[in-house]
TrEMBL record:
Transmembrane segments: none annotated. Gene3D superfamilies: Metal-dependent hydrolases (3.20.20.140), Urease, subunit C, domain 1 (2.30.40.10). The keyword Mitochondrion does not apply. It comes from Streptomyces alanosinicus. Keywords: Hydrolase, Metal-binding, Zinc. This is 8-oxoguanine deaminase.
Length: 461
C-alpha cells in the first residue's frame, strides 16, 4: 500500500528513545505509523494535515522504544518450570531430559502460547524459539509453535533444532528423543521451505539450529551449516555455556568450543550462539572478526550457575550481542524486559565493574542488538522512518517510576514497567498490559493442564 493511502496512527506527547545509530532521544515527541511502517518521528507535535489518521494516542507519561527482540528461548519448557532448581547445567539436563522427551504437539502448542504471552505482554515484539526436542511420533511440533506465534501476532523466528547424539553415543538425551542425521537434516530443510519468509516485513522466519556440541554429531553441525547456507537462512546453537562444556570439547575434539565451531563452519555473520559465557580473548576476537552473534541470557546463566559472560569485551570487539530469555525451566519469569536490568547488574559484577554497561547500552542490547543477531537490523530494532512499526509504549508516571527523571534510566534500573500499548507490524497486540489477540486466562489454564499431563506421563514412564 502506498504511504499516502495507508491508515495512520499518531502517537504524541511521549518521551522517545529511538535507539538509532546516533541514539536520538526526545523528551517530548511524536511518532507516526503508516500501515506497517514508521513514517515519521521527531520532537514536539506531529505534522498537521496528515491524511487517513484513524487513531491519535496521547502518550503523556510514557516512554516509546523499539519493541524488544528476544534472541534465545525454548518455549516447550514453559510446562516444566520450577524443577531441578538447585542444579548446574549438566545435572539439570540429566534431570529434565526424561520429562522433555515425552512432549507432544498439544503440549508444545500450549507451552508456546504461554511463553509468547509472557514475553509479548512485557514488550517483546520479535520472539524466537530454539526447539530441538522431537520425540518419535510426537506430531507437528514446529507447526504448532509457528501457529501459536501467528495467532498472537508476534514477529517470530523458529530456530529448528535437532539432536542426533543420544545416551548410547555419549550424549545426554534419551535414545527415543533424538533424530537420525539424515532425518534431522531432511526435516529441517522441509521446515525452512514450508515456513521461512525472506521478505522485508516477514512475520515468520526459520533458522537451522542443531542443539549443542554435546548433543549433536560433528556431521550434523557441518552439514547443518551447509544446509543453512544453501537455503539462505541463519544458523543458531548453544556455545561455551559452562566449564563442563569446555572440558567436554577438549576431551572429545581436542580443542575448545570456539575452535571446534570454526572447524565445522560455524563462525560467521549468519551465525548466532546462545550464552558464550566461557570465552577467552582469542574466542572473543574470533567472534568479532567473523561477526558471529551472541544471545546473552543473564538470568539463566545465574540460575544454572554458569558464570558471567564477558559482554563488555564482546561489544568492544565488535561482536553483535542481543538478549535472550532462555527456556523457562532455567528462567521461570519468562520475561525479557527484566533482562535489561539483569544484564546491566550482573555484568557490573564482572571485571569492568560499574563501567561494564549503562542503561542505554542495556536497552540497545534488548532492541537493536537483538535485531542484529537475528539478521534484521535493517527492518526492526530502532525507531526510524521506513522501518517496521514494532513499537512499545511503557507507562512511566506511576509510583514505580515517576520520581526518576530520566525515562531510560527508569526503564532499565527500575521495576518492570507496565506496557500500555505494543504494536507489531502496525497492529496493536497489547492494550493496558493485556494481550489483545488471545485470552490470557485461557492460556494460563491450558498451560497448567498440559504441565500436569506431562508430569503424569513422565512419572508413569
Amino acid at each position: 500500500m502506498a504511504a499516502s493511502a495507508a491508515q495512520r496512527i499518531v502517537i504524541e506527547n511521549c518521551a522517545i528513545a529511538t535507539v538509532d545509530a546516533g541514539d536520538a532521544e526526545y523528551a517530548s515527541g511524536y511518532l507516526v505509523i503508516a500501515g506497517n511502517r514508521i513514517e515519521s518521528i521527531g520532537a514536539g507535535q506531529a505534522p498537521e494535515g496528515l491524511e487517513n489518521v484513524v487513531r491519535r494516542i496521547d502518550a503523556s507519561g510514557h516512554l516509546a522504544t523499539p519493541g524488544l527482540v528476544n534472541t534465545h528461548h525454548h518455549f516447550y519448557q514453559w510446562i516444566t518450570r520450577g524443577l531441578a532448581t538447585d542444579h548446574n547445567l549438566f545435572n539439570w539436563l540429566v534431570a529434565l531430559y526424561p520429562t522433555w522427551a515425552r512432549i507432544d504437539e498439544q503440549m508444545t502448542y500450549a507451552a508456546a502460547q504461554g511463553s509468547l504471552a509472557m514475553m509479548a505482554r512485557g514488550g517483546v515484539t520479535t520472539a524466537m524459539d530454539h526447539h530441538y526436542v522431537y520425540p518419535h511420533g510426537s506430531g507437528d511440533l514446529s507447526g504448532s509453535i509457528i501457529r501459536a506465534a501467528a495467532e498472537m501476532g508476534v514477529r517470530f523466528t523458529l530456530a529448528r533444532g535437532s539432536m542426533d547424539r543420544s545416551e548410547k553415543d555419549g550424549g545426554l538425551p534419551p535414545d527415543f528423543a533424538v533424530e537420525t542425521l539424515e532425518g534431522a537434516l531432511a526435516a529441517t530443510e522441509e521446515t525452512v521451505k514450508q515456513h521461512h519468509d525472506a521478505s522485508f516485513d516477514a512475520m515468520t522466519q526459520v533458522a537451522v539450529a542443531p542443539c549443542s556440541p554435546f548433543s549433536v554429531s560433528t556431521e550434523l553441525l557441518r552439514q547443518g551449516a551447509e544446509l543453512a547456507r544453501r537455503l539462505g537462512v541463519r544458523l543458531h546453537t548453544h556455545g561455551s555455556e559452562t566449564v563442563e562444556e569446555e572440558k567436554f570439547c577438549h576431551e572429545l575434539f581436542g580443542m575448545g568450543p570456539t575452535d571446534y565451531f570454526e572447524s565445522t563452519g560455524w563462525l560467521g555473520e549468519d551465525v548466532w550462539m546462545a550464552h558464550c559465557v566461557h570465552m577467552n580473548d582469542s574466542d572473543i576476537a574470533a567472534f568479532g572478526r567473523t561477526r558471529t552473534g551472541v544471545a546473552h541470557c543473564p538470568s539463566s546463566n545465574a540460575r544454572l550457575a554458569a558464570g558471567i559472560a564477558r559482554v563488555p569485551d564482546m561489544l568492544r570487539a565488535g561482536v553483535p550481542v542481543g538478549l535472550g530469555v532462555d527456556g523457562t525451566a532455567s528462567n521461570e519469569s519468562g520475561e525479557l524486559h527484566t533482562e535489561l536490568r539483569n544484564a546491566l547488574l550482573i555484568n557490573r559484577l564482572g571485571a569492568h565493574r560499574e563501567a561494564a554497561l549503562n542503561a542505554r547500552q542495556a536497552l540497545r542490547l534488548g532492541t537493536h542488538g537483538g535485531a542484529q543477531v537475528l539478521g534484521r537490523a535493517d527492518q526492526i530494532g530502532s525507531l526510524e522512518p521506513g522501518k517496521l512499526a514494532d513499537v512499545v509504549l511503557w507507562k512511566m508516571d506511576t509510583l514505580a517510576h515517576a520520581s526518576i527523571a530520566d525515562p531510560v534510566t527508569a526503564l532499565v534500573f527500575g521495576a518492570a514497567a507496565p506496557v500500555t500499548a505494543s504494536f507489531v507490524n502496525g497492529e496493536q497486540i497489547v492494550d493496558n498490559g493485556r494481550l489483545v489477540t488471545v485470552d490470557e486466562d485461557a492460556i494460563a489454564r491450558s498451560t497448567r493442564e498440559e504441565a500436569q499431563r506431562l508430569a503424569r506421563i513422565a512419572a508413569q514412564a
